[in-house]
Each structure stands twice: as structure tokens, then as C-alpha cells.
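During the reporting period, our protein records have gained a C-alpha cell line. A sample record is set out beneath this paragraph:
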Amino acid sequence: MAKLRSCLTFEVEHTINFLALENQSPVFYLGSGTNNTAEYLAVGTISQIETNTNHAFEQLKLFRKKTQDWSFGWLNYDLKNELEDLNSNNPAQFNNPKLVFVQPELVFKILSREGCLTVQCHFFPEISSKEKIQKLIATVWSKISEPLKPKESIEFHPSLSKEEYLKKIEQVKVHIQRGDIYEANFCQQFHAKGSINPFSAYQRLVKSSPTPFAAFIRFKEFYTLCASPERFLKREGNRVITEPIKGTISRSSDAKEDLILIDKLKNSEKDQTENVMIVDLARNDLSKIAKKGSVKVEELFGIYSFPQVHQMISKVVCEVDEKKDSIDIIEAMFPIASMTGVPKISALKIIEELENFKREMYSGCIGFFTPEDDFDFNVVIRSLFYNATTNALSYAVGGAIINASTPEEEYEETILKAKAIQSLFN
């Protein structure tokens, strides 16, 4: 039986000052406090797992069984190769471990209720003193007394020219017309070299683009700044939830025009087609681990608004046996339906053939396990990746391609999705 953590509760006046986390390592932050959801901040390490082997899921099972505690980390998209007869031969930008999970020294759960912020700190008294925790809370939730550091001037370069991208979309459509697939998520990467302050950049990102599944990771020299609007998978007891996004349209600063755009997305046959295909794929994946007859679509074609875009989001749920292993549930759903295509395996092979970069963490997931073995993971999209040693930076954007897709419109959608990341720099 694992030891139970103690809990201290504090009231704080300010949101997290990410600049105050510069001296902490590793750092895992999840959530942005939007939609009255909890935020989580994990710092320090008691134990950890990082692996590139072909048995990553089995190793994670052993790690979870051993710790029976909070675990924060990521699963790389290329773990798909462990689950199916697939490969990833495209060049990698970062070569990070495919799977990393940390049992943190301190776990902070932040709740916003009636204008008040409550922070719960979960800790082991024999490792962390109350004085240390109080000092950290006073620092991390301090009022930001100095202005954010100036934006860096970073020039990103696409992995494909616009002309090359348009040709690739036509190639995807040829596969669709031949009957190889019905839909595929095709992505392009943008990369750069430059030194940035990731804490300052992330503070700007969450201010300009608050999203419910935002995340910030500092792990050794590697950083992830994520403004994801999408949940991959959540477990609460015997209930499992996935919320795929398919369907995007830009926002307007004019309120009337913005309502017209919402209506346009809501009634778009193309976006509904994309969305329902991925919902069916998610239902199929859930059926592998669900109690018979429990898979249900709770919401179809919901429209949700974010600072730069409106999104079409659906919600699929099921019930599982409470003794069902959480790693088996994640394995059954991986790789993430909305980042692959239909049929999944055929789409994955075509994506690998046509894309010219290894996705690595992009299209994977970031999240946490609780001591009770519940979990919550996002989809790693709208994200900037940075190596502070090599000064390598990259982000990737993509979209679902179906037969009705227009290459030019698909290209414009990718540029729209990149807007939040591009706005971080001059």
C-alpha cells in the first residue's frame, strides 16, 4: 500500500506567476482555470520514468503499480509504432523520450470559486516542510511586479512551401478517391533557431489564448508551451470521456459577424462530415475497453469559442469495469483519433508517407494520473516546443482532409491555427 500524502490548503489572490518558476525543475502545469476547471502544478521529483524502448506501456504499468501516487507526464505520438505494425522514419527535431512520467515532490491543485483561488498542496511531510511549501506558494502566486520580458524576434520556416503543401493535400485526396481512406489528418511543421524565455512566452500565451487543456512542461532542457483546446481522454472511476475536435473557423472582432461565423460552422456539411467520422472512430476505440452497450455520444457538433477560433467539439463516453487498468484504456485509444484518420491504420501509414517530419510529442498527449488511478490527458496541438541547449524551436499545425476539402482552404486553416503561437514573437 502506497503512503498517503498530507494536504495543506491556502487562499491566494493572484494567478500563477510563471516567471517565478524559473528556479524549479521539472515543472508540469496543466489547465488554465477556464470553464471552472481545476489547474494542476507539479514540481520536483521523487521518482520518474523516461523511456524509448519498445515496451513503454508495460514499463509505465510497472511504474504506476510501484508508486500508486500522482504521476505527471507525456506520451509521444510515435508510441503508435508499439501498438501496430508501423514506423516513423522521418527526421526528428528533438529526439526526446517517447514516454516520460514524474512522481512529483509537490502537487498543487488550484480551484477557482466565486472569485477566490484556493490552492491545495499535496506533499509528503518527511520530504517537504510546511515552511518550504509556504515560501514557494508566496513566490509562485505573487503579484507580478515587473513587466513581462520583451518578445523575442524569431523567424519560423515551414517544412513545406505553400505549393508543396497544396500538392500533398491533393495526394491525400487521391488516396481518398481510390478508397484507401475516408479521412486523414495531415500536418506541416514550422521550425526556427533562437533563444527565448519560455516562462515569459507561456505567460503571454495563457493571457492571450486561455484554453481548458493548456499545459507547460519543463523537463531538463526541453520545454513545451501548449494552448490546446482539446481533451484526449479522462477517467473518473468507471466513466471514460473523450472529446474530439473536428471543425474550425476564425473569430471576428465584430459581434454580429462572429455570430454569423458560428452559424456557418454549425451548419457546415464538410465540418460535420469530418467530425462524425472521428466520433465513429472514437466510439470504435472505446468499445475495446467499454462495458457492453455503454458507449454513447453525449454531444454531437457542439460549438465552442476560443480567442482565435470557434471549434466543433463532440463528446463520447463509456463505462468501464472499475478494476480495468488505466494504461490498457489509454493503449486502446492511442494514437488519438482526431490526429489520425479513418480507417486508422491505413491513415497512419499514408500520413507517415506524406509528412516530412517526425511528430514526436505533437499529436501525443500530456496529462496526469491520480493516486486512485483516475487520469486526464489533453491532445498536444497548438503547441511550441523548445530545447534550451540547442535553441531549436518548432510547432506543427494540421487538419482533417476529406474528399470535399479544398487545398487552399486547408492551408489557410493551418495558418489560422498557428496564430496563437506566432503571436508570441515579433
The radius of gyration is 21 Å. Residues 6-422 form a domain with the Anthranilate synthase fold (CATH 3.60.120.10). Residues 269-287 form the longest helix (19 residues).
